[in-house]
Design a protein that fits this description.
heterodimer; A: 80 residues; three-stranded antiparallel β-sheet; 2 helices; B: 474 residues; alpha+beta; Pnp Oxidase, Chain A; UbiD C-terminal domain-like; 2 domains; nine-stranded antiparallel β-sheet
Chain lengths: 80, 474
């Protein structure tokens, strides 16, 4: 894993992240995922996709957004 | 002869000067998506793009914009690359009449060469995944032909569906999947979930160039996309049996991902920059657990960029949306001459038609809205006379500007269904729909002053040919 491992999700600021994969060429990049909002990013992407301060406000998510997200499609009722 | 896989089509694109190899090293993001985005901004005959020198990867082969121009779309159908759009649509409609053409089973599929299963499954290891647009929640598979069966009628070949859906890779062996309620796979999933059962699925990547065209085509629920592929190819579609699910998949696929929808499971997905030119997302969507991946040696990863039109997506779902609507309308109204449904997968449609009697064109417009595809898409219809080419937008604008009396020719109907992704819908899934009748009123609809139209001179056709010849000979 590269030395610049992120500490929070750029999109929802959650602190628990999963390291999904690392570059086949050693040290080139890593891919992380937020455990809460599932945002997935490569460490070499532009700051607007990787840095919480630069992440666009329009795409940020809060815990409430995730909690209240609607189902699409809704889970249907079970049939006997 | 038809193409049986992506590789043979890419070879033809290269021979025809329609494949550009990017040899310099590129970054996975934002370069690959930005280049494919740019391909849609440099004219109607942009090439496909090939990347194999991508920072951090040792073995990436990525094809973008394969259908992303009229030249490439023509070549995909085996037509000369300079075939006009209207002629491509007309040839597509002619081949449609050969439907159904039964597929041929050839089990020696090259994707049987390699397998990942169990703990060894890792989509990130196999595929050079990357983000497309800034606001996308992750890395997507957006050009796969996805196969599922009707759980209540699994032996029915026609009800086996092949479609294109947005699929987010949310883990080494997990995918978030969007089945729009209007689409067939949503019906399969609903039936399975009502019984509390998982739904098997096969996701095929990197196919022959007709497969994405038929997978993205709005067809009737019990019509087989493979039998339509045979009609468009002019020869049977080669299929093989996917090993884990038994689903019928293209023999020529680069990668076959198998698994199942986890019954009654939803997980946060997106957003994703959509074909509407807007993002949608932040919703909880079904989840696929991957159980087996079969793949050709040195697989090619094919993806497409989509966003504000025009992009590859618009070429891919242009003609294949026009033709089903044309066929469904002509079945009842032979007066219909041509349908241009190339705008946002048919959210807006332009129809040229003869008039049986006054008010007829408006009725054709209403019928377009109640075709199977129209229910979820056709929100605006422009009707033009039979001598107006609906693919010629200056002619269409002439018809609108000269034939329409808004108080009589614009009809707005409230609260009709539309695909939830339609950005103007309110609430999502509900929209008002509009018919603009830009045809000439005919008896007994006696309105306007159209008795003496100026027609092209009888000698004009002859002079068109003469001018073209003289220009060519200069």
């Amino acid at each position: 894993m590269s030395a610049t491992a992120p500490s929070i999700c750029p999109r929802c600021a959650h602190e628990r992240l999963t390291h999904l994969t690392t570059s086949p060429v050693a040290g080139a990049w890593d891919v992380f995922q937020c455990d809460r909002c599932l945002y997935t990013w490569r460490t070499t992407e532009p700051a607007r996709r990787t840095q919480p301060d630069a992440y666009p406000a329009a795409f940020r998510l809060t815990a409430e957004d995730i909690e209240n997200a609607i189902e699409m499609p809704a889970v249907p009722p079970l049939r006997a | 002869m038809a193409y049986d896989d992506l590789r043979s089509f890419l070879a033809t694109l290269e021979e025809e000067g329609q494949l550009l190899r990017i040899t310099e090293q590129v970054r996975p993001e934002p370069d690959i998506a930005a280049a494919a985005n740019a391909a849609g901004r440099i004219g109607e005959n942009a090439p496909a793009l090939w990347f194999d020198n991508v920072h951090g990867f040792t073995d990436a082969r990525i094809a973008m914009n394969v259908h992303g121009s009229w030249a490439n779309h023509a070549l995909a159908l085996g037509l000369p690359k300079n075939t006009a759009v209207k002629e491509q649509v007309a040839e597509f409609a002619r081949r449609w009449d050969a439907f159904p053409v039964a597929p041929v089973r050839r089990e020696d599929a090259p994707w049987r060469e390699n397998t990942m299963d169990g703990e060894g499954i890792d989509l990130f290891e196999l595929l050079p995944l990357f983000r497309l647009n800034d606001g996308d929640g992750g890395f997507y598979l957006d050009k796969a032909a996805v196969v599922s069966r009707d759980p209540q009628d699994p032996e029915n070949f026609g009800k086996q569906n092949v479609g294109v859906y947005r699929i987010e890779v949310i883990g080494k062996d997990r995918l978030a999947f969007q089945p729009v309620p209007m689409h067939d796979i949503a019906q399969h999933l609903r039936m399975a979930e009502e019984k509390g059962e998982d739904l098997p699925v096969a996701i095929t990547l990197g196919n022959d160039p007709v497969m994405p065209i038929v997978a993205g085509m709005p067809m009737a629920y019990d019509q087989s996309e493979y039998e339509m592929a045979g009609a468009l190819r002019g020869e049977p579609m080669p299929l093989a049996t996917a090993p884990a699910t038994g689903l019928d998949v293209p023999r020529g696929s680069e990668v076959v991902i198998e698994g199942y929808f986890e019954s009654r499971t939803r997980q946060i997905e997106g957003p994703f920059g959509e074909f509407t030119g807007n993002y949608s997302g932040g919703r909880r969507m079904p989840v696929v657990k991957v159980t087996r991946i079969s793949y050709r040696t040195a697989p090619i990863f094919e993806s497409l960029y989509l966003g504000m039109p025009w992009t590859e997506c618009d070429y891919l779902v242009g003609p294949n949306t026009c033709v089903p609507l044309l066929k469904q309308l002509k079945a009842e109204f032979p007066e219909v001459q041509a349908v241009n449904a190339m705008y946002t997968h048919g959210l807006l449609v332009i129809i040229s038609t003869k008039k049986r009697y006054g008010g007829f064109a408006k009725a054709v417009g209403m019928r377009a809205m109640t075709t199977p595809h129209g229910l979820g898409y056709v929100a605006q219809v422009i009707l033009v006379d039979e001598d107006v080419d609906p693919f010629n937008l200056p002619q269409v604008m002439w018809a609108l500007s000269s034939k329409v009396n808004p108080k009589d020719d614009v009809m707005i109907m409230p609260n009709l269904p539309v695909v939830e992704l339609a950005p103007a819908a309110s609430p999502a899934g509900i929209i008002s729909k509009m018919i603009i009748d830009a045809t000439t009123p005919v008896d007994p609809d006696r309105r306007g002053n159209f008795a003496t139209p100026v027609k092209d001179l009888p000698e004009t056709q002859e002079w068109i040919a003469k001018l073209q010849k003289l220009i060519a000979e200069r």
